[in-house]
Design a protein that fits this description.
It contains one helix and eight strands. β2 and β3 form a beta hairpin.
């Protein structure tokens, strides 16, 4: 059963990352970004993820909030290498590109709420959609 759960997590993560990179989310909606990264592991607890925001170890399959940041992580067993653990990180993702026709809605945004309700919410003029930076792209044209 854990093998099927692990594959399901990986498939969902890939779909979520592709969607997050190409998301044309409308203003006023909560946007969740997901990515799978190598987990932090303490040498004395090699079968558990280390949650630095809680200063605690976490078993595979369990989640923790990323307070003081807006996000949540889940410890995931790597199906390709059972001695390695992964961390499924869910957060608000990158901020949208600057747009004079869209503003942070300070009345709807609640930075102290639990995830995902702590993510920033933007309000745009009618017909305007937020644009987000492409993840993994080098946006600095001055580099050689």
């Amino acid at each position: 059963m854990s093998f099927n759960f692990g594959i399901l997590i990986i498939i969902i993560t890939i779909i979520a990352c592709v969607k997050a990179e190409h998301d044309d989310t409308n203003a006023g909606e909560i946007r969740v970004f997901k990515r799978l990264i190598p987990a932090d592991v303490l040498r004395d607890f090699p079968a558990m993820c280390f949650a630095s925001t809680r200063c605690a170890t976490v078993e595979p399959g369990k989640s923790w909030d990323l307070t003081p940041f807006c996000g949540r992580s889940t410890c995931v067993q790597n199906q390709e290498n059972e001695t390695k653990l992964l961390e499924l990180v869910e957060d608000c993702g990158p901020l949208p590109l600057a747009n004079d026709k869209c503003k942070l809605d300070t009345e709807k945004t609640n930075k102290t709420a639990s995830f995902p309700y702590c993510c920033p919410i933007f309000t745009c003029e009618s017909g305007v959609k937020l644009e987000y930076p492409e993840i993994g792209k080098d946006n600095d044209n001055n580099k050689n």
